[in-house]
Amino acid sequence: MPRLTEYLENTIVDLTSEIDNNTANVQRLNKRKVEKAFLGWVQYADDQYTSGIPLNLVTGARTVLENNGANVVNTAAPSGSTDWLVANKFMPDNELDTYRVRVRFNVNPTLNNRNLTLELDIGGAVGTIWTRTIRLARGATVVTAVTEDLDFYTSETFLTNGGTFYLTCDGEAGVFDIVYKIERVYRHAPADELALPADALVALTPESAYTTTGSAALIGESVEQWRNIISGSTAPFAEQTDINRQPVIEEAGGRRQIRFQGNGDFLDFGIVGDLNFPQPATDYTIIAICGTGANTGDWLGNISGSLGQMGLSFKSGRLFFHDGRVFKNYTEAPPIDETMITLQRDNTNDKTIVYQNLTERLNETSAVTVGTSTRDFLIGAVNNNDAESMDGSLRYFFVWKRLLTEVEIKSVYDQTIGV
Fold first, then answer.
1. Do the Cβ atoms of 66 and 46 come closer than 8 Å?
2. pLDDT tens digits, residue range 19-66?
3. Cα 33 from Cα 17, distance rounded (Å)
4. Which residues contact 3 (CB under 8 A, 6 or more apart)?
5. Whole-angstrom Cα distance, residue 326 to residue 346?
6. Single residue among 163, 186, 209 that ends a domain in this structure
7. Which Gene3D superfamilies match (predicted)?
8. What are the CA-CA distances from residue 260 to residues 179, 223, 268, 319, 404 (Å)?
9. Which of 238, 262, 334, 339 could form a disulfide with 267 if both were Cys (CB 3.0 to 4.6 A apart)?
10. What CATH number is associated with residue 305?
11. How far, in Å, CA of 53 to CA of 274, rounded?
């Protein structure tokens, strides 16, 4: 009998592991299907400029590399994409998408050893974001075939203005057979397309921050509301009506984030039943995805609190979560790049669990006094007197009133920063 019991136990362990692996494989396959649907390429070929009637470059004159897109290959275009070439401008679909562009053309200079400069300009204060100088060393009236590849992400300015290719030559030349191949290699999912694990109570994203005028906050603007995108939730948004305490939208590493400046900035959800985590009978998972920059000092710091405090904050770069308990002290080196912190409360086993990205950093019994908080839930401070005022940035903030599995945690990571 002992051997039979041992055999059955081992079999159950093996089956459980196989189920977990199969579940993870299915999720990976589904993710690849989604990626495949949203990634792809389109080729645009010009038919107005030929070797007989080229695009003429005048010495020193900056000239648009015109492409009328008369011949289009779009069988591999991603789902839902718009026409990327409009009136000689590359017009991307979404902010923070990443593209790979191949530019091809032939050039025929009238003089020997000319220098040809190709650049991509997105206008506004940013202007040129990429440039390449090509040496035409084959001699006068000898055609040179040019192929240049470039990778870039689409900033807010790029999305607004589009991008235009320009040529400048230090001698006269003719350009023809112009082709653009535009490929989207990464798609930044809009807020309403995040495939979050079931039963999320709160989902705050970089796109759901709004100004005092009720419009989506742009780079450099203050945030009055950080709106919850979960429909039907009793926590519609976090708010700060005091303009002197509002965080701001900034861009770092090519991505938007909400910057709390350590001087009393915070956002207030109010007293919301779903966010009060009433003790003692509550499991929950909180995921905070922190941006780059300004996160200094110890990293996770104290996960602690008292009955008079309720919120998520930083102090000197430390992440705090307060829910009426006193948990454990825990520190980690500060992040260089964006980092996902997952905090879980396992009520049944009286445990606090912390993940940094996908690595478990803490799993310990809390052994603390249980109470119920009736205070507002804040992001950026732990009470409205600016206790532990946050000095750092956030990109996403999610809440579930249950424990997520490791596979579910990884799915959030993959969709936000893991890709």
1. yes
2. 555 444 444 434 443 344 567 899 999 999 999 999 999 999 999 999
3. 24
4. none
5. 15
6. 186
7. 2.60.120.200
8. 45, 10, 13, 13, 28
9. 238
10. 2.60.120.200
11. 69
